[in-house]
Amino acid sequence: MFLFLFLSFPVPSLFSNTAALQVSISLNKVELSVGESKFFICTAIGEPVRLEWYNPQGERIVPSKRMALHTETSRSRLIIYNAIIEDAGIYRCQATDATGHTEEASVVLEIYQRLTFRDVQSPQEFRHGETAEVVCDVISSPVPVVVWYYQDKEITEEHHSRFQVLANNNLQIQQVTKADEGVYRCEASVEARGEIDFVDIAMVVNVPPVLSVFQQSFNATADYQESVTFTCMTSGSPDPVVTWHRKGQQLEPSEQYIITRLEGGRSMLTIRNIRQGDGGTYTCKATNKAGSQEREIFLKVFVQPHITQLKNVTAVEGSAAMISCVAEGEPLPDISWRRASDGQTFVDGDKSQDGRFEVRGRHGKSVLTISGVRLTDLGRFDCEALSRIGGHQKSMFLDIEYIPKFLTNHTIYYSWEGNPVNISCDVMSNPPATMLWRRERFTISAEGTANTRVHSADGKSVLEVTPMSDRDFGRYNCTARNNIGVRYQEFILAQADVPSNPYSVRLSAVSQRLATVTFMKPDSHGGVPISYYLVQYKEVGSQDWRDVKSHSIQTTVVLTGLEPNTTYEVRVAAVNGKGQGEFSHTETFQTLPIREPSPPAVHGQRGMGKAYRLGLVKQDDGGMPIVEYIVKYKTDKEEQWMTKLVPGANDFAMLQPLQWNTRYEVEITARNVKGLSEPTFYQFFMPQKPDITGKRMIKANFPAHCLKAAKKKISFKIPFSH
């Protein structure tokens, strides 16, 4: 828009009656563009006493920052700095003389706006797909004509349907795309002044990120030093910045998290040394000026079963025991139980046939309940947590507390005056029991008395009593106590006696020199174990008994060194710590008379060369020693016997020299002083004579032409044996 400031010539006052006072302004007409500065000089002729300037609003001008006045007697200068549109109008300079007569001159100031681009930004950025408005803020007076150019071509709505120049001179682009990006020229002109100017504006189209992932879920196993890598692909303009997030927090590079950015918009997150807590959702986020986009990736972490809680349990016999096993893992493992004593297993929902064992489990916890706990339940129990990833086993010990239990029913002990005896009170208990001895309401102290002494060990207390009189025999009480309960056991110390007599004495295997005595043990051992049996024997008519002790408490004794054809008497008594008991009924037996020996037993063995060894085994010698063996032998084709005498103390006979490849018959007889035994017959066969020269072997193993060649050069013998 144009503004005009008109200059006027001096106008004489209508009330002036002389021409002595005249006023003029230095410029006739002034055009001034906005922002420029100008000064005007007002000159008065005559004798003015005052020169004053008035603005277009008729107000007297006083000096300010944009308007300055420099006034002398007949001259005044008005300076306008940085003119603005509002400064346009008629300015008057008025002179006043001493009589109050005034004269003035005026000037009209015209102000116009030059072409000006105000704060045009470059580049200007827009989001892909939106309606873009490229701002070109240009002013002038009069209003300029604006034309837009792209790639040196004028933009017209006829050829660019999405483009439109708005009334405010801005360029509007519908659904802007990356292809619209570039440098646009905004050109403005004022035809009246021939003024023209332009500004180049770079337009940037920002494309929101587009994000994609190759794989949305991953599996890994914890605590196996495993790593997993997520990959995101992004595009957009400007290039998006990719960040990784978990649980609302941005992940920063560390030893565990390795973030790698590659060309082509690829970003990778590597998680090292996977642990159970690393499972869950991870977010890949791409951000640029046009927006952001996110994609989620899920990491499933499998964790090997691990038993986190299993403790030893102590239960009281007869009560209930609850054993708890807690395990974790991903997936949650199944829990089973195993009893180490017999290998029996229990799983969730199992119940034993007797109803005492029952298993209940839920959410990684299993409880084994044992009702009516028995001592046989004591021991190790194994808890095993198992999943498809692996297994874990731990063991616990079930300890059972119970009231003291006496381990023996041996409650009667025997002794005699002066003989010490140990009364043993054996107890099994948990926790260990304290043990006391009492005698007729009195407690026997650990130090003992003159004839009693207490010896204690784990689970055992021995009361040593040395009876000195009848008062020391009788009842003794053993008391065992722990925090579960108390038990009592009564022992009786009785006076011991010698054993009663053995009975049913029998003789067997009687020969010339030997006899075997058997008998039945006594009905009573006198309260003290039998030490041995005493067997006495003598010839009938003799007064001297000979003693033979049994081996330990065997009820069989062999009598040796007897005389042949002799009558003997025999009796048996039992002996214990108290002494010897009564003898049994006396039995009589007679040894056999002397006779010829029994035939000897024979076994053969091939000797060296032309010899044969006959082994001789003595049988019953008939009551007298064997004097000699008479060995007769011959071939099966001869009638003549050859005889060889062998001393009776020998256990073999060597027959030699014999013939090769021959069968022999042998007749052996044993002789003692009484006579000859019946003969024992035996046969054996002598093999063929061995080939000791080796000729047969050589001929059999070498071709004839080799033998001939060997005879010319060397002669040798090869030893040979069967």
UniProtKB/TrEMBL annotation:
UniProt-listed GO biological process terms: cell adhesion
A Pfam family annotated for this UniProt entry: fn3
Chief site of localization: membrane
Gene Ontology CC: one annotated term: plasma membrane
Domain Fibronectin type-III: 501-594, 596-691
Signal peptide limits: 1-20
Membrane topology: Single-pass type I membrane protein
Entry keyword set: Cell adhesion, Cell membrane, Disulfide bond, Glycoprotein, Immunoglobulin domain, Membrane, Phosphoprotein, Repeat, Signal, Transmembrane, Transmembrane helix
Domain of life: Eukaryota
Keyword Transmembrane listed: yes
Coiled-coil portions: none
Matching Gene3D superfamilies: Immunoglobulins (2.60.40.10)
Domain Ig-like intervals: 12-108, 113-197, 209-298, 305-399, 404-494
Subcellular location: Cell membrane
Keyword tRNA processing set for record: no
InterPro entries per UniProt: FN3_dom (IPR003961), FN3_sf (IPR036116), Ig-like_dom (IPR007110), Ig-like_dom_sf (IPR036179), Ig-like_fold (IPR013783), Ig_I-set (IPR013098), Ig_sub (IPR003599), Ig_sub2 (IPR003598)
Matching SMART domains: FN3, IG, IGc2, IGv
PANTHER family xref list: CTX-RELATED TYPE I TRANSMEMBRANE PROTEIN (PTHR12231), NEURAL CELL ADHESION MOLECULE 2 (PTHR12231:SF231)
Annotated function: May play important roles in selective fasciculation and zone-to-zone projection of the primary olfactory axons.
Name of the protein in its database record: Neural cell adhesion molecule 2
Gene (name only): LOC116044484
